[in-house]
Amino acid sequence: MTVFSSFIAALSARDTLEDRERDLIESLPSRAGRYRRGEELVAEGSRPTESCLITSGMAARTIYLMEGQRQITAIHVPGDFVDLHSLYLKTMDHSVAALGACTAVFVPHPDIVRITAESPHLARLFSLTLALDAAIQRAWITSLGRRGAAAHLAHLLCELFYRFRVVGLTAGSSFDLAVTQSELADVMGLSTVHTNRAVKQLRATGLVGWVGSRVTIHDLGSLAAMSDFDPLYLNLRKEHR
Amino acid sequence: MTVFSSFIAALSARDTLEDRERDLIESLPSRAGRYRRGEELVAEGSRPTESCLITSGMAARTIYLMEGQRQITAIHVPGDFVDLHSLYLKTMDHSVAALGACTAVFVPHPDIVRITAESPHLARLFSLTLALDAAIQRAWITSLGRRGAAAHLAHLLCELFYRFRVVGLTAGSSFDLAVTQSELADVMGLSTVHTNRAVKQLRATGLVGWVGSRVTIHDLGSLAAMSDFDPLYLNLRKEHR
DNA sequence: CGGCAAATTGACACATCTCAAAGCCTGTGG
DNA sequence: CCACAGGCTTTGAGATGTGTCAATTTGCCG
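The joint structure predicted for all components is written out below.
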């Protein structure tokens, strides 16, 4: 049980890792950090020399507009290597902030480059995480563009359920969503008020139980059906990549 | 002037290419294709063994929902290497279709892998294009979530202007946007009718001229200001990546 | 117990959707 | 060269979804 366990679990769900690759990952040096709701892990405009890996809680990529509005463009759960982007893009065009309390570790870019040079297969798996992020963003774009508030929320819950389950953070059909409704609103591009109505509406269907931060999915099939959710884009099948 | 000229131009805007790297790219074998509006370059559910590079016109990543609705999650212009994603994700979770008429060439995955193995720097530049796609998607998510129709459209025009200019497809401050309003609607998550109203509204500001498929940006500064556009995310500065 | 952030509700304003119809291009066949 | 068909653009009117503002309730923590 190390800080990299979740990351290894997330990769292992998608391809077979050899012992040597596992060792290379475990050999990465890391510096730990602990954050409270809203605290920034990576600031917009900065030029990071490390990438961060979420170890507990959740973090979000956030873009701020004029007039104090903001949009969350991605949610990251434990095991997600956030910010490999900064390896290539250099200057951050957005910030990464904690959603609820969260912990993360930071790994220097040169060490990432080193282990990908030693194992081309690992290099591909790091690129896979980039491509996977992009696939999730496409699903979000689709929800934002073509689904109403309730369906959007249902789709998001399905996605998070699968993503939490991969890293062992579900208990049966429930998981902990330590997120404020106002943060959810920034994910779905809605007002806080309307987000609350969407939550209410979803509860009324009976498909989902939601008490405090505890979300229980009573009927995943129907929830997926009402939001046109198909887990294909999460690439949860082991393939040789 | 080869089929790879635009791609090389797009990379050269972001980093310096050595002659050897240029030669490696030019050495790639390719198969050409020509498509009419709506024709699919890559089908959802397929398992591509090639990646495609747009050489003229535009293509779009498209996700279909029930009830015939669709959402375009990305627009690709000449010089864009679409579908590097399929190198990692294996099964397509969306399709790539022509917007207006378009031509593209297809490059076998093994050849891409080969030249990235020969040049780690090229490998990083290929990853850069993945990361850049993701940055653009973040901007789209922000537009979908937090901007009204007119501002969304203005932001999109700014983006496309910069992207076309990099590959030499602008004439002064104008460019050819051979796209149907119904396709634009699928980009912005709006109805065709409302998209038309947004176009009308933008014309009324006088910041943009739009006759047929010819778009002329009369005042880029104001257009950027009204849509909170900042080209940072397009990474148009040469850096060592 | 008191204080504060978060969740919830109601009423009304505004953005966007749907449906329906009319006008406008462009390619094609006669 | 003209007439027509079909797709695209444009407009109007009424329905629906979502935003805003303001107030109340709930839940947590000191």
